[in-house]
Design a protein that fits this description.
- The structure is a homotetramer.
- By secondary structure, chain A is an alpha+beta fold.
- Chain A is 34% helix and 17% strand.
- Chain A is built from three helices and four strands, in the order αββαββα.
- The first copy, chain A, has a four-stranded antiparallel sheet with strand order 1-2-4-3.
- In chain A, a hairpin with a 2-residue loop joins β3 and β4.
- In chain A, α2 crosses α3.
- The longest helix of chain A is centred in the middle third of the chain and has 18 residues.
- Chains in contact: A-B, A-C, A-D, B-C, B-D, C-D.
- β3 of chain C pairs antiparallel with β3 of chain D.
Amino acid sequence: MDTAPLATRHCQPRKGKEHALDKDAIAALLPQLPGWALSADGDALVKDFRFEDFHRTLGFINAVGFMANREDHHPDLEAGYGHCRLRWSTHDVGGLSLNDFICAARVEALLDR
Amino acid sequence: MDTAPLATRHCQPRKGKEHALDKDAIAALLPQLPGWALSADGDALVKDFRFEDFHRTLGFINAVGFMANREDHHPDLEAGYGHCRLRWSTHDVGGLSLNDFICAARVEALLDR
Amino acid sequence: MDTAPLATRHCQPRKGKEHALDKDAIAALLPQLPGWALSADGDALVKDFRFEDFHRTLGFINAVGFMANREDHHPDLEAGYGHCRLRWSTHDVGGLSLNDFICAARVEALLDR
Amino acid sequence: MDTAPLATRHCQPRKGKEHALDKDAIAALLPQLPGWALSADGDALVKDFRFEDFHRTLGFINAVGFMANREDHHPDLEAGYGHCRLRWSTHDVGGLSLNDFICAARVEALLDR
């Protein structure tokens, strides 16, 4: 099993139920992602981010977007003047895959100071 | 009353209930905005937009964001890989003001060809 | 001849020397674009823009970029913390075409208040 | 001396000639930045990047811009349809400081796969 930090890993194509993470795997990975939580249905990782103004919110969306395009794994997002909520899920496995944890960790790395 | 096309007008500070548009005013303006609808509670203008990929969705969000910053009136948005839902409302009047119609018309102008 | 305002027109494919504007045509159009000038070699329209900070400079670049992608005509740009220099030229005609004037006018429209 | 990888470090305020890197320090750091070179006058780090289209070029500019805003150290850039040239220099030291190497390394990290 790969034990490199999540934020240094890259997404891989993961399709089919066999790539869905089970409860134990999710419980083991989630503590590595401060502030991230499971959605009510357990199918997604979500976190709210706050920013000083709309310029900074857009800047964050763009930085996340660049990473998402490079990883070819894309979040859903909700945003307004000074906030953005990200939601990572893997449609092709019908729930959470390792890709979602990698991308959430990469988002944290964008904000690391 | 100003009869210039909505997309050529600019937002003004509008605070307080007296700037809230009533049902008749809303009904008169809405036909100028193809595809826009009232939210279920009647307090917001909403429209879904579709794009070919995440690059184009981000490009749209940025173009809307630049306009919103210049007008100092900001939407809520929900977005994913190839779509973006915009929602304009005026918190300071507790519903819809003319600013929301101006911004919706300016969004249409961004996509005018 | 089309006399609609430049900012309401759209770029068209223009390839070949016959689409290059001559000196008289350029001299007639340039007054419609305040602050824009010919490059030293006469082959491009250029203008410098100033902004308060890097957030606003990036916002401008994105708004111009969205328009450029929609018009399928792209500028060269130089930018730093609080400034951006745009340069429009039409490689396929070896100089200036009407597309460059349309895009410059559309940039002005982005900043119209 | 801090030996952590450049891309994991953060910019610090560095003002005054004493923060300017000398030739030996520059020669020691430059091999950590593949593809980066000194400008002709030796005062800046420069590199050209190529992209498939303008969407991707803008995405890169935004990702660099987000990092630059967070580090409060900003590049000059030149860009066109499928390319972007970045230039890092530290005005406050009149040449290169460690901040320029940190930011160049952080740009590389954005593109790390």
